[in-house]
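Sequence in, structure out.
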Amino acid sequence: MDWLDDIKWDRDGLVPVIAQERGSGDVLMFAWMNREALAATADTRQAVYWSRSRARLWRKGEESGHVQQVHEIRIDCDSDVVLLTVTQLGHDPGIACHTGRHSCFFQRLEEGRWRAVEPVLKDPEAIYR
């Protein structure tokens, strides 16, 4: 897989990944991939990440059912960041965040404090049983 050699992997063999929703352009989440995760994502067209906390591959939606269908894979000009264009499946509207929200970027800095500005679409207790 020569195209994988074009990626500038960090010292741990990882590359940062941004998942952006097709259509809306919303940034849903940030994660990491290793070579195996990126190859699996390209092969299956479903997002597969490297979970640093679990130290293993993590197929998005494996527990929650909130799968990311991948439409496009891009790299930035320095070849050190991957951008996925995805459709978030499993709930309408899509839930990408483990908090039950559409996006992991639901907190906004307001007057020196972080404020949640996106609603919880589904209780995480009901998602992760």
